[in-house]
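S.,

Sequence below, as promised.
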Amino acid sequence: MGLFFSRNIANFLLSSFFSSQKFTSQIENVVSVVSARTGRHRQRYNQEYRLVVGCIPYRYKDALKSFSVDNIEVLGISSQKGQAMMFPKGGWENDESMETAALRETLEEAGVVGNIEKRLGKWYYKSKNQATMHEAYMFPLQVTKLLENWPEKDFRRREWMSVEKAREVCPQWMKEALDLLISQRTELEQSLDEEETPCS
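The prediction came back faster than expected:
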């Protein structure tokens, strides 16, 4: 539910992103062009599970870009109907790839774009307000641009926060996704450091 890009504009922007790995300044002009898109007639399901995709947007605190718990911040957004904080996510529709849907939801809800990374995993959860069961997939997203205007600006608050704060405020399944991101990237950084260390 909520406001979404028109289908043609969203597809153009996302295909441009995948081909060039960068957006131009024109995106900020296009972000304000939204259309009401309601209903879930394109929504993907796996039996009784509604398929959901999203991202954990993050940025480095310093220019060295060394991945560690102390050197990154993650972007949380408020829910539309309350103050609960979470990472951007939403329905995966049947005319999108998983990555395209995750990027679209992140752009619509959090107003950020960036480099999407390898999928973290799969989680199952139940809506608090509905009986719907969800099958969710999450991706890390290294943020390259924070937009001033985005489709859900008037409905959500966004906040850069430490990993520790995110662990306190996010739903349990998102905490697990965040912990997996941290552990995978920490292991990768350590293995790269070992490769660069000369043998004595």
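The radius of gyration is 17 Å.

Coffee later?
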